[in-house]
Amino acid sequence: MAEQSGDLGRDIARVAVFAALIVVLGTVTIPMPGGVPVTAQTLGVMLAGAVLGPRLAPLSVLLVLLLAAVGLPVLSGGRGGLGVFLGPTAGYLIGWIAGAIVVGLIARSARPSWWRVGLGALVGGILVVYLFGIPVQALVLGVDLGPTAVSSLVFLPGDLLKVVAATVLTVTLRRAYPRAFGTRGSAATRASVRAA
């Protein structure tokens, strides 16, 4: 019982750390036309998925979104409040939840490796987030889906750099501090580090 409560406490701490990381990365923002800024917060979502896995990563994202909903300035550019869930970035924010799950499912599969982390960050952190974000942005701005998707390509180079950064940081963290990945997978994590 004490071990279970210890595991729960560690899980809560890990969720809180990655929620804080997502918030801090929101301070890195470049405004763009169309109301959707370039932000480093998606890097935090990718890292949460890769390190915490599909069960805990969405909790980090949900914590950030809950803090934003109650009005705290935790999103890029110091935004917060219910209004952010009605603006052009709303779909991207909701996409973070699904994206974190997908990153975790791919990156934290049976044999984690650098290419799985990269693939997870690419599919979950870019493709899934765009699949949620672009249609909502088009709807809110009253623009057709095609032009909105084309205009979103301006974000792709930065997002690809975030995939590389998430991959490098995750692999480095796995080697330096495997406990960050949780106690349940620690033996498998150590074995994957030796195999890498």
From TrEMBL:
Annotated transmembrane regions: 12-30, 59-78, 90-107, 119-140, 160-177
GO cellular component: plasma membrane
Entry coiled-coil feature ranges: none
PANTHER family linked: BIOTIN TRANSPORTER BIOY (PTHR34295), BIOTIN TRANSPORTER BIOY-RELATED (PTHR34295:SF4)
Organism: Microbacterium hydrocarbonoxydans
Keywords, in A-Z order: Cell membrane, Membrane, Transmembrane, Transmembrane helix, Transport
Family under the similarity heading: Belongs to the BioY family.
UniProt KW Plastid keyword: no
MF (Gene Ontology): biotin transmembrane transporter activity
Compartments in which it is found: Cell membrane
Keyword Membrane attached: yes
Stretch forming the signal peptide: none
Name under which the protein is recorded: Biotin transporter
Primary location recorded for the protein, binned into one broad class: membrane
InterPro entries: BioY (IPR003784)
Membrane topology, as annotated: Multi-pass membrane protein
